[in-house]
Amino acid sequence: MYNYKIKILKTYQNTLQFAQQLDKEDTLSYLREQFHIPKDKNGNDWLYFTGNSLGLQPKSTQKYIQQELDDWAKYGVEGHFEAKNPWLPYHEFLTNSMAKIVGAKPIEVVVMNTLTTNLHLLMVSFYQPTKTKYKIVIESDAFPSDRYAVESQLKFHGFDPSEGLIEWKPRKGEDLLRIEDLEQIVEQQGDEIALLLIGGVNYYTGQFLDLKRIAAIGHSKNCMVGIDLAHGVGNINPDLHNANVDFAAWCTYKYLNSGPGSLGGLFVHEKHAHNKDLPRFSGWWNHNKKTRFNMRMPFDVMAGAEGWQLSNPPILSMAAIKASLDMFEKIGMDALRKKSEKLTGYFEYLLNQIDSDAIKIITPSNPKERGCQLSIQVKNADKSLHTKLTENNIITDWREPNVIRCAPVPMYNTFEDVYRMTTILKGLL
User: Given 7, 62, 93, 385, which is the most exposed site by the fewest CB atoms within 10 A?
Assistant: First the structure.
């Protein structure tokens, strides 16, 4: 870690000219022009650092959605077969690109529903508690909806969440999770644990956890392992298939830029693909495609992740997702991660140059243990610093009790963005 920081100090410079030079050298700088950048009342671009909450709109999205509106107007119901992108198999147009983004095989991935709905549907299959093996492990500062989902699952099965919910916590005086502490929890209580449901990238600290090691820890005691990838998909390389987790779910409106409330996605490992005996909820869209429209056939579940679908999908939402995934397909996650590490590294360097006791970065310094988000802890915080940033047209995200989350997204943020942001921040401090 020490050597890494020395390297950064020798590489970066705290000047506007240096930031602008980095932008000139950036082979992905052209992407910014492919997004709508929000502007202030004077027509100046906002400094937008909240792609971890809602990604910006690609300029191509309108065209993709308009295509489906035009085909709906032109064909009506026949659009399911006659549209330029036929609606009946539309979700299949997204599968290969999404699988590449999360490091999965196509059979393991499907776009459907929204995040928490998908987590519940997956827990129907992969949370099968007994009287003695029923507990669920989550990280202590999991996103609230994950906690609510897990607590409700415990209650639904007749267990008291105060007994059935185990929290993986940072050590006293620390902000980040240690994997050896999870090992100890599972070693000591594994015979009572049925499921580990962990956020792959923690929403609060931005810490990217070792998914392969988490899966191995859980499986060592015959626990199922699920991952919430809401803050990871399109941000880091989760390599889900090789990580060997049992399932994962995510949204697409953050780093995947698909629009507010757009559909999510899920992953079910190939080892479960052909297990038709897994309990699950059913609908006509996870029924065998060949006999789906023969309305009087007994239920015949499809193999793979498609076997968790329920209803026919909303095409207009999928069109927005397709616009984004087509961009990812052209660029590739490797190129995005390469820029992200450099851009976030420069942001970290500039924040450290402020040298103020009022703020502290709580996100890991190792770029392999984070995505693009840096979480800035504000000492003696009352949200006023975040408010002042907003008044200066810097859009960040405040999370109680004392963190400003900033995400320089490699698709549309620039090195000059982070330089200007930190310059204003220093002045406010």
Answer: 7
